[in-house]
Amino acid sequence: MPDQRTLVRPAAQEAGWLRDARRARLLSVATLGWLGVESALGLWTGYQAHSVALLSWGLAALVEALASLIVIWRFTGARLYSARAERTATRAVAVSFWLLAPYLVAHVAHDLSQGYRAAPSALGIAVTTISLVSMPLLGVAKRRVGARLRSAATAGEGTQNLLCAVTAAGVLLGLALNTIGWWWVDPAVALMLAAVAGHEGVKAWRGQSCCH
C-alpha cells in the first residue's frame, strides 16, 4: 500500500506544482511582513478611536499572520510532499478562524456596555485603505494557488486576507456613518465578521476552502 503520509509523487514533482508551492510560500512571507505593521497600527488606532471594528481588524491581522506562518511551515522542507502536513496545516488554519470569532463578540459587548463610540482616526483610515486595496489581490492569488495545489490551508489563508479587506471596508464605512449618528454600523460589522470567521473555520476544518 502507498504511504498515506506522502502526497502522490508524480503529481507533486511536476514543475508547475513546485512553482506553485514556492509561490504560496513567498506570498505568505510577504503577507506576514505587512501584517506585522497592519496589526500594530490597527490595534493602537482602534484603542485610540474606541472602534471595535478597527480593533477587530487589527486582531484579525494577528490571526492572518498565524495563518501565514502555518502555510510557510506547510511548504518548507520535507513537509512539501506530506499529506499529513497538509491536513495539520488545514486544521490549524481552521482553529485560527475560531480564535477570532469569540473575541469580536466579547469586544462588541464590552464597548456597548461602556457606551464607546467609534471616532475618526487619520492613521487608521490610511492603513485600512491600503489593506482594502492590497488584501484582495493577495487573497485571490492565494486561493487560486491553493486550488491548483489542492491545499485547503493555502486557500484558507487567502480567505482570511479577503476577510481583512471586508473588515477594512466595514471600518471605513462605520467611521463615515458614525458622523451622521449611525454608530451601530461599527459593531454590526464586527459581529458579521465573527459569524463569517466561524463559518469559514468550519469549512477549513473540513478541507473545503480550496473548492469554494
TrEMBL record:
<dbReference type="GO" id="GO:0016020">
    <property type="term" value="C:membrane"/>
</dbReference>
<comment type="similarity">
    <text>Belongs to the TMEM163 family.</text>
</comment>
<dbReference type="InterPro" id="IPR026765">
    <property type="entry name" value="Tmem163"/>
</dbReference>
<keyword id="KW-1133">Transmembrane helix</keyword>
<keyword id="KW-0862">Zinc</keyword>
<feature type="transmembrane region" description="Helical">
    <location>
        <begin position="53"/>
        <end position="76"/>
    </location>
</feature>
<protein>
    <submittedName>
        <fullName>Membrane protein</fullName>
    </submittedName>
</protein>
<feature type="transmembrane region" description="Helical">
    <location>
        <begin position="162"/>
        <end position="185"/>
    </location>
</feature>
<dbReference type="GO" id="GO:0008324">
    <property type="term" value="F:monoatomic cation transmembrane transporter activity"/>
</dbReference>
<feature type="transmembrane region" description="Helical">
    <location>
        <begin position="88"/>
        <end position="109"/>
    </location>
</feature>
<keyword id="KW-0812">Transmembrane</keyword>
<keyword id="KW-0967">Endosome</keyword>
<keyword id="KW-0770">Synapse</keyword>
<dbReference type="InterPro" id="IPR027469">
    <property type="entry name" value="Cation_efflux_TMD_sf"/>
</dbReference>
<feature type="transmembrane region" description="Helical">
    <location>
        <begin position="121"/>
        <end position="141"/>
    </location>
</feature>
<keyword id="KW-0968">Cytoplasmic vesicle</keyword>
<keyword id="KW-0472">Membrane</keyword>
<dbReference type="GO" id="GO:0031410">
    <property type="term" value="C:cytoplasmic vesicle"/>
</dbReference>
<feature type="transmembrane region" description="Helical">
    <location>
        <begin position="26"/>
        <end position="47"/>
    </location>
</feature>
